[in-house]
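Quarterly update from the structural biology core.
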Amino acid sequence: MPTLGNPKGTIEILKKYNFNFQKRFGQNFLIDSNILAKIVESAEVTKEDFVLEIGPGIGTMTQYLAESAREVVAVEIDKSLIPILGDTLSSYDNVTVINEDILKVDIERLVQEKNQGKPIKVVANLPYYITTPIIMGLFESHVPLKSITIMVQKEVADRMQVGPGTKDYGALSLAVQYYARPEVIAYVSPACFIPKPNVGSAVIRLDRYEKPPVETEDEAFLFAVIKAAFNQRRKTLANGLANARELGITRQQAEEALLQMELSPSIRGEALTLREFADLSNILYRKIK
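Predicted structure, tokenized:
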């Protein structure tokens, strides 16, 4: 079985199968064993754990996970990688590979079947173009999750963990921080991948809260308010909310709610904390419902 996680082993297996990188799948394979070990260590994978891996590629991280976990299910969208995974994972009897788009997989059923419905750990080296839909899909579907440890574009990792008043702060920051506690584990140079991406990467761990840190009358309404607040960043928050027709809020109602919270009617969304967004959405929800 080829040893991956270094340039030599990776290049050998790619040549053996005459593999061509698919730009549409945003494929970049890790070739740094230190980073791989760090990901598995920071995900705190033990022999008790069932791990869902998204985007195993040629099976580099899968090998590391299989050594540490009780069982791994790896979901890979690119069918040309399936024979390679059959080869690189042939000596592990605790790994199942599913050739499917993760956004179409019934993860809830998987958790029931493989982990008796108990919270699972997710580990992934995600293509940058689809990071947000995958993470939000996992959180919003409320599948039992302990943590998500993922390699993402550095800029996205920064966005997930920043607070109000910074240029990176936005709807993604608030959504992630509503569901989980984010912590950047490591920054990773483009030289650690084949092929080299054009941007730096980061490993971030998202520890799922048992219950969100704020209370809300209606979760969907809270996120609609947050989305409207950042859709037109340059506008005041009151204008942004009034312009979002689906909310059914007037500018006057938005300004009154802000005054009730002792905030300026001309404040912008990027100045509000998650707690303030929750309070604001609760006031507005009661006003219109």
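The first strand starts at residue 29 and ends at 30.
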